[in-house]
Specification:
It is built from ten helices and 19 strands. By secondary structure, it is of the alpha+beta class. The strands form three sheets. It has a six-stranded antiparallel beta sheet. The radius of gyration is 23 Å and the shape is globular.
Length: about 450
């Protein structure tokens, strides 16, 4: 299916349904997976993922329905189902209506690579063979995935708006494991690009091997406050959580955002500037949202000062401004409100992570985090989580050994008041819960990050 064919399908379904106030958003992804575990290629799949979400409004009563097939009759039925349910839901007095043909068109953004869209199963295997050989040569066990995805998104409304966009995304994740059971050292590498031929598989594999080798025989540390360098992947996860709990208009309206009642005030350290930047080079998203509104750059935090949040049409109408193009399809963390799609953290001045680590007397270098929970105290952005795939003790500016995983619990915003360095380079990380969503973040050095639990003693 082509992008214009998907738009035409939605238009025909809207015309047949005949609802005067209706909207249809569709996506169609064709994904090729090469998933490997315990050193072997375990799963090799080609998947097609169609999805359509429709909304119908009657008397400002808005109902949403979805189908998982690109079939005109099924979409028409979904529209009729939504219309029948409309009288049973409350009126939304702030509903602004669906976008019309006069909605400004998004700027052209090229995020499609034929090499990714046409990547075959054999090509993915060929790309992975050197990965397997390098990890096996190191005496380690390879696990991970190479994913090549081609995606079409389209929006149509009963008011004549038509949008479509085609993009690609290739992503690679690799772990080099000391043991198949996951009980030993683990090193990790990842990269993502619209063009599969531009993935840095060799460098990321080497990174995983290096971290696994220096992660063997880890020691333990007690709970406490440690100066810490968070790698870009660890920092990106915290910024992603900040986006979910605090940088959307819904959370601001509810008074739950760290920015609620504090616009124009400095709420964190001056090193932190964050932008919603969906049209720049550090993004994977379509240039319009599920309502067909063009995305745009939005300064959210500038040198620690709260600047703005992102909006969809409904929250923008209530605020008396225009949408920033951040309406999200249902599902994942974005369900129910506008959410940033492409967060970009401004880089610092450090030339490398080694430079940041060199500024630690005694502290920790944390490569990744997992099981992060950002809902503990959203107003302060208190978060907790575990370190993984590389937690290293640093003494006199040098990594001297590995330590077992530790749990941190701290306010991200208060911790960044104590940040005194960021790398100039940033890593672009796709998020797992939304198509095209991403965070681009540098590495950061934070003084006195609170680790609420010590590492396990062996």
């Amino acid at each position: 299916m082509k992008a214009d064919e998907l738009t035409e399908l939605l238009k025909r379904a809207l015309d047949r349904a005949g609802e005067p106030e209706a909207e249809a958003y569709a996506s169609f992804a064709r994904r090729g997976f090469a998933r490997f575990a315990v050193g072997d290629l375990g799963q090799h799949m080609q998947l097609e993922e169609p999805s359509v979400v429709v909304r119908v409004a009657r008397d400002r009563r808005v109902v949403e329905a979805s189908v998982a097939e690109l079939d005109e009759a099924a979409i028409v039925n979904a529209l009729k189902d939504a219309a029948r349910a409309a009288p049973s839901v409350p009126r939304d007095e702030s509903f602004p209506g669906f976008a019309g043909a006069d909605e400004p068109a998004p700027p052209p953004v090229a995020r499609f690579a034929r090499s990714t869209a046409e990547a075959s199963a054999d090509e993915r295997v060929t790309l992975l063979e050197p990965v397997f050989r390098r990890i096996e040569r190191a005496g380690l066990i390879a696990t991970g995935v190479l994913d090549t995805t081609s995606r079409i998104e389209a929006v149509a409304t009963s008011h004549g708006l038509l949008r479509s966009y085609q993009s690609t995304l290739a992503s690679f994740k690799v772990w080099a494991l000391e043991s198949a059971g996951g009980g030993g050292a683990a090193g990790h590498g990842m990269c993502a690009h619209t063009d599969v031929t531009q993935l840095s598989l060799e460098a990321e594999t080497e990174r995983a091997v290096t971290d696994a080798e220096r992660g063997k025989n880890p020691g333990s540390l007690p709970a406490g406050a440690y100066d810490a360098v968070l790698g870009p992947l660890a920092f990106a996860e915290l910024i992603e959580w900040l986006g979910m709990i605090g940088l959307g208009a819904r959370e601001l309206e509810q008074g739950m955002s760290p920015l609620s009642g504090r616009m124009g005030e400095r709420i964190t350290g001056e090193l932190l500037s964050v932008f919603e930047d969906p049209l720049g080079p550090h993004a994977f998203s379509a240039p319009f949202d599920r309502e067909g509104v063009a995305r745009r750059q939005v300064p959210l935090l500038r040198r620690g000062v709260a600047q703005a949040v992102v909006h969809d049409r409904a929250t923008a109408a209530r605020a008396g401004i225009s949408s920033t193009g951040n309406a999200c399809p249902p599902g994942g963390f974005a369900s129910g409100g506008p959410t940033p799609s492409s967060l970009v953290v401004e880089g610092g001045e450090a030339a490398s992570l080694d430079e940041l680590i060199g500024g630690l007397g005694r502290g920790l270098y944390v490569r990744r985090l997992h099981y992060v929970n950002g809902y503990l105290e959203p107003r302060r952005a208190v978060m907790t989580g575990l370190t993984r795939d590389g937690t290293f003790l640093v003494e006199h500016g040098k990594i001297v050994g590995a330590v077992e995983s530790m749990r941190f619990t701290d306010s991200l915003l208060e911790a960044l008041e104590r940040a005194d360095g960021m790398t100039a380079d940033r890593v672009l990380v796709p998020n797992w819960w939304s198509a095209g969503g991403s965070v681009a973040a540098p590495g950061v050095r934070i003084r006195g990050l609170t680790f609420s639990s010590g590492s396990r003693e062996k």
